Amino acid sequence: MRKVELYDTTLRDGAQSEEISFSVEDKLRIARKLDEFGVHYIEGGWPGANPRDAEFFEKVRKHKFITSKLAAFGATHRASLKVNEDPSIKALLAAKTPVVTIVGKTWDFHVREALRVSNQTNLELIYNTISYLRRKVPQVFFDAEHFFDGYKANPEYALKTLDAAVSAGADCLVLCDSNGGTLPNDIGKIVRTVYDKFKTPLGIHAHNDSECAVANSIIAVEHGAVQVQGTINGLGERCGNANLISVIPNLKVKLKINCITDGKLKKLKDVSRFVTEIANLRPFKRQPYVGDSAFAHKGGIHVSAILRHPETYEHIKPDVVGNYQRVLISDLGGRGNIIKKAREVNLKVDPDSPEIAHIARQMKELENQGFQFEGAEASFELLMKKTFKLHRKFFELTGFRVIVEKRSEGEECLSEATIMLKVDGKPEHTAATGHGPVNALDAALRKALEKFYPQLKKVRLLDYKVRVLTAGTGTAAKVRVLIESGDDVHKWGTVGVSENIIEASWQALVDSIEYKLLRG
């Protein structure tokens, strides 16, 4: 089986994403996760560029990498300095990494306008830098910046820059689509041309400005590249880099190329989510392979088919990449959706039972009223259990009151909720404040119930969404409230609908509490 090596640049190129700011500790945690995952190279940053990267390289030395090699990134030396005098080159060596990646200009337009040196001087900068580092570092890679644009503008000169890198001893020539505007057909032709000319291994570094970074990476591999550079979840400047979370299964599963083990591939979703959390971003539900919607089925025809053979509407088995199949409940679905959901929660049902028909009618009527169960599967599970008489009432509401008070201009509103309920006939009356009326009501409900059900102390309200359903009715509009809750292990969604936002929120809060109590 052919082998392709993975080069992750999340900690450098990915850190250049808008709204991303990794701390040193963040970078250390991600580096350890990538090492566990099994990527071959981890680019830690640019040691001479900022104090944060310098601190990272100093601290990361304490970590013994198991599967990955750490790479430091830098540029060719300044034309005004000898290579051994350049502070940025000294910083690269001070990082003490087994791999150094050097970026150099290959587009004569950039040589003229960015570096402002002659074409010959640029060739000397590439040769001097790589040959100097090659004598001191085990591996040196050459990132041929803007290579595809450079080749299209002046192919003779672009190839000369690669000649200079090869002559200096570069271990890999990484062809960069730095502006991200090259299409797959051109990538394939140019990579093949370079492959036929040089014996040095080739790599690909693609940006996603034309939504082709993953496709370009795959095309490059098919034409001879043996290293793929990219980032987790496609993080990166502007539109991002090639998304390794998509590249890896495309290589491993689709092309049967050995880039990672089967066992590590099962951690793909976990790695994606880990980096998402560290970056303080929301997961992209429709992300291929690892998104929550990647193997989610809604249409009744689809669900009916996958119940017989999952491959009818799934291009791979979800568990191969650590994901799982989901069946969504909506008025577009049919009895098959309900049967699948019932079996997922261990309900033994007869497909022809009157209860299934009742649930189907009830579900469609509720969705007509504005309920949505796609993001509120816990509420739908409760609906099913009530129909099959497997639900128990954990408390009885006597009443609640929510007060919102603003005492003076410029001060925040004060919210307080008072609640009265009974648990096994025992009355409970309590109050709580919160950041807004819904938060106060949630706090009061938990406060009243936690003495009876201590497991509720672990429940957290993770997300709260309000959707106006009836346009044109102003403040009297019907609203739908979706709440996501979670504990130390699980997450679940619940829904409520009403013209009164507090009532809709109450419905969703009660479902959330009852779902947790039913699960234990």
Give a short overview.
The chain has 520 residues and is of the alpha/beta class.
Strand order of the largest sheet: 1-2-3-4-5-6-7-8
Helix segment count? Answer: 18
**In the residues, how many domains can be counted?**
2
CATH class of the largest domain: Alpha Beta
Proportion of β residues? 15-25%
CATH-level-4 superfamily name of the largest domain: Aldolase class I
In the CATH hierarchy, the architecture of the largest domain is Alpha-Beta Barrel
Mean pLDDT: 91
Radius of gyration: 29 Å
**Which overall shape is indicated by the principal axes computed on the Cα atoms?**
elongated
Class from helix and strand fractions: alpha/beta
N-to-C terminal Cα separation, in Å? 48 Å
Estimated helix fraction: 25-40%
Largest sheet: 8 strands, parallel, barrel
Number of DSSP-assigned strands: 16
Low-confidence stretches: none
According to CATH, what is the topology of the largest domain?
Answer: TIM Barrel
Which helices and strands occur, and which strands form pairs?
Elements: E1 5-8, H1 24-37, E2 41-45, H2 51-60, E3 69-75, H3 87-94, E4 99-105, H4 108-115, H5 119-134, E5 139-145, H6 147-153, H7 155-168, E6 172-177, H8 184-197, E7 202-206, H9 213-222, E8 227-230, H10 244-254, H11 262-265, H12 268-278, E9 296-297, H13 300-308, E10 326-327, H14 335-344, H15 354-369, H16 377-387, E11 396-405, E12 414-423, E13 426-434, H17 437-449, E14 460-468, E15 479-486, E16 491-498, H18 501-519
Parallel strand pairs: 1-2, 1-8, 2-3, 3-4, 4-5, 5-6, 6-7, 7-8, 9-10
Antiparallel strand pairs: 11-12, 12-13, 14-15, 15-16
Helix pairs in contact: 1-2, 1-12, 5-7, 6-7, 8-9, 9-10, 13-14, 15-16, 16-18, 17-18
